[in-house]
Design brief:
The chain has 446 residues and is an all-alpha fold. The protein is 76% helix and 0% strand. It contains 20 helices and no strands.
């Protein structure tokens, strides 16, 4: 068994080096690592490959359509400029009184349906305009916006990372609980992000040359949907998913079935999309965005589905390798939730820091943790959701030079590498630790 553990550690190192140093696609690294571990555990080559394929297909069948619809949803909100409409409304409503916190909140709201990379490029011009009118350094708005988008991307479904981890743990029917806990954990993290950003209100980047996104023709003059319509489109699926978890408080069988149907993540997101296609149009041509949204959304979802399935395949190999027997000998089955939360956080933080991708770190870590997590813990929904959130906390810690989002924040903010490490990277470290502490506090209720 100790030899098997060495093989697993070697396979994880291979995944990290293969993706970060050799620039191989994660699918190649995960397939080869899975076969390696499977054969070390006693499978023959074809048996290991089959076990990987079964795990790959099982998870895609459970969570694949949700990820696709979520990606389509994000494209719709981006291309219709609904995200910009919401951001501007939030600033006009609360931004002038609490600039950093409102910008962080703006990032969180927009980051739920829109990927953080494109969200930052989309909203960064707003932040720079706010800096001109407020007198604060643009760093304050850039850091608070980057932190809010990053937070939503990692902690709050239906973003791909939390969705994938939820699927790996078999918690799709508890997605509403994952959403609620993710929001609870996000609150203190938002406060910390805003506090950190305000420390830079009088500090300006050394470089005055800021790389701007290439503007689309007449971008600033394009019409936007109303903030109310945009917010309703986002809020509807989140509300329905949450309602699906309230059936324990109902006695009417008809209402229970109705809430279960409407709260199903596929139904909820599809309902929000249907409303979105009705009220959100292309700002320049006023044409419907259904075709474009599905085409680009599926293109975005493809790599995520591949990575998610590969992570699940790796997890299936680990579960069949007998790894849990080693942890039985270590008597970790009697450990508290706090111990498992710290283990999940530490493993994910190591993977994130080593190879850069938060989504990859979350998926690989979830696969490993699930293979050793006691069944008694997996049967308790709230505790499992806390472990999912702790994996998200680890995936924040930290973003640096091997993370593509780090370079987007650096380039569009005009920071030097040193400035970005001292401001943005330290921010992500603080956010991750804050999320971990919040999860540990919530674990006292488990």
């Amino acid at each position: 068994m100790n030899l098997l553990l060495l093989h697993i550690i070697g396979a994880i190192i291979w995944i990290i080096l293969g993706t970060s140093k050799l620039k191989l696609h994660p699918l190649i690294c995960l397939v080869t690592a899975s076969i390696w571990v499977g054969m070390a555990a006693g499978f023959d080559f074809l048996g290991a490959l089959e076990a990987f394929a079964v795990g790959f297909g099982a998870l895609i069948g459970q969570i694949g359509l949700i990820i696709i619809l979520g990606s389509v949803f994000g494209v719709l909100l981006e291309k219709s400029r609904a995200a910009v409409s919401i951001a501007e409304a939030l600033w006009q409503g609360i931004g002038k009184k609490i600039p950093a916190l409102s910008t962080t909140f703006m990032g969180v709201v927009v980051g739920i349906p829109v990927f953080c990379d494109s969200g930052f490029i989309l909203l960064n011009p707003i932040g720079k305009n706010l800096a001109k009118t407020s007198g604060y350094s643009p760093l304050t708005f850039a850091l608070s916006l980057a932190g809010g988008l990053y937070l939503a991307h990692i902690l709050i479904p239906p973003t791909p990372g939390p969705l994938a981890v939820t699927g790996i743990f078999g918690m799709e029917k508890q997605l509403g609980l994952v959403l609620v806990v993710g929001i609870l954990v996000s609150i203190p993290v938002m406060l910390v992000a805003a506090w950190w950003a305000m420390r830079f209100k009088h500090i300006f980047p050394e470089s005055k040359v800021v790389r701007e996104p290439i503007p689309e023709p007449e971008t600033l003059a394009l019409a936007k949907p109303s903030a109310f319509a945009s917010a309703t489109v986002i809020a509807l699926p989140l509300l329905l998913i949450t309602l699906g978890n309230l059936t324990d408080f109902l006695t009417s069988e008809i209402l229970i079935q109705l809430f279960l149907i409407l709260g199903n993540p596929i139904v909820a997101i599809a309902t929000g999309l249907t409303l979105g296609f009705m009220v959100l149009k292309d700002p320049s041509s006023k044409n419907p965005l259904m075709g474009l949204s599905f085409r680009q959304g599926i293109e975005i979802a493809g790599p995520i589905l591949i990575l998610t399935g590969a992570g699940a395949g790796f997890g299936a190999i680990l579960k069949q390798s007998g790894l849990e027997q080693l942890f039985e000998n270590l008597d970790l089955h009697s450990a508290s939730y706090a111990t498992w939360i710290l283990l999940a956080y530490g493993l994910t933080a190591f993977l994130k820091t080593a190879q850069g991708s938060s989504t990859s770190a979350m998926i690989i870590s979830a696969s490993i943790v699930l293979s050793i997590l006691p069944v008694a813990f997996q049967d308790q929904a709230f505790g499992t959701v806390l472990i999912i959130s702790s994996i998200g906390a680890g995936a924040m810690t930290i973003s640096h030079a091997n993370d593509s989002y780090f370079w987007i924040v650096k380039e569009f903010t005009g920071l030097t590498v040193k400035e970005a490490l001292k401001s943005y990277s330290l921010l992500t470290g603080l956010m991750g630790i804050t999320a971990l502490v919040t999860v540990l506090v919530l674990s006292l209720m488990a």
